[in-house]
Amino acid sequence: MKRIGLVLSGCGVNDGSEIHEAVLTLLAVDRAGAEAVCLAPDIEQTEVVNHLTGAVEKGAARNVLVESARIARGKVSDLAKATPADFDALIFIGGYGAAKNLSDYAYAEGEPIEVEPSVARLISETFRAGKPLGFLCISPILAAAVLGQEHLELTIGQDPETAAKLVQWGSHHVTRTASEIHRDPHRLVVSSPAYMLGKSISEVADGIDRLVAEVLRSIS
Amino acid sequence: MKRIGLVLSGCGVNDGSEIHEAVLTLLAVDRAGAEAVCLAPDIEQTEVVNHLTGAVEKGAARNVLVESARIARGKVSDLAKATPADFDALIFIGGYGAAKNLSDYAYAEGEPIEVEPSVARLISETFRAGKPLGFLCISPILAAAVLGQEHLELTIGQDPETAAKLVQWGSHHVTRTASEIHRDPHRLVVSSPAYMLGKSISEVADGIDRLVAEVLRSIS
What we know:
The structure is a homodimer.
Chain A: E1 3-7, H1 19-31, E2 35-40, H2 64-71, E3 76-78, E4 89-92, H3 97-100, H4 117-128, E5 133-136, H5 140-147, E6 153-154, H6 160-168, E7 172-173, E8 182-183, E9 189-192, H7 201-217
Parallel strand pairs in A: 1-2, 1-4, 2-3, 4-5, 5-9, 6-7
Antiparallel strand pairs in A: 8-9
Helix pairs in contact in A: 1-7, 5-6
């Protein structure tokens, strides 16, 4: 049975993993007959957002690994201890957690952004191990930041400023809809805009189904 | 467009809504061309559970409506203000939140359990309005507690103690698998065991797809 690492960054689109994307990926992996291996770093969230009002809850503290366990129904491991030997492919779920907890993209005013060290290491090692990588929603910024020198073709949505960052860091931006994916023609890297563009959960599910299928096909 | 009320009880299987069940229901409703209307009571959770360790986080406080907004991507309304005019059918998502926040089933040692008043009112009013009701996972205890005198046929899983409660309160227990549903032969009430029995997200998704389809078919 193929094992697919899924990287979570908390539980909730505004300060962690986009919950729909995470669950839809778990569903697509299970329906494909593969096993999901959920991973998240054991670090504090940079902030806690009230998802009803959108306001930051000052003084509130939550842990990325602990909150990710809500989505994973308890079955999630510390990403810092993971290596590419633990999975056949690795998929990053979107949500602001990728830009607030897994990197400082949401806060960075200068260049370059910092990617959380265990996350940067795992992206690098997985790429060098020749195992497929999938990136949903905003998470292609992680690929661009860590693997910019590879000049990857990545989706990110349609925001010109975000797309410009990818290009500035050496990657190529490819425009796709939420239900579409793009695979780099030369490398085992697949991405899809998901909720960067998706207006409905069905559209996002279509894109995720395609991304998971392409990632599984890419496993050697 | 048909509107389906979805009742959430927080965000996480051990102290709120079962996240997979909630997202899979949102997906099934959207794919069926209907609109989901998320509802949750604006009350404090009875407890906060660390989903990594299973331990209760003493002193921690979270609000059911605010946490439910994580699943609903912000689009969730106060259940206390909802009436059956707001939707064409009403589906209750499972998770311990149904037994800890929407009722005191998880804590009740005596009989009968107490159902949160706005939840009890909405179940009653929806039933009397002739609109279909769907109950996933553990949430049929709410139907049994509020509508016991209707002698409904309900699923709950295979735990004899829980099934005995349904019977004690006047309902009939029907055994189904996670991918199956049961509709009461005489009333517009559909239920499915979901994660009470489900070993995989695919199984649970199959049951939820069937429940949503049956609930939609039952709308007059």
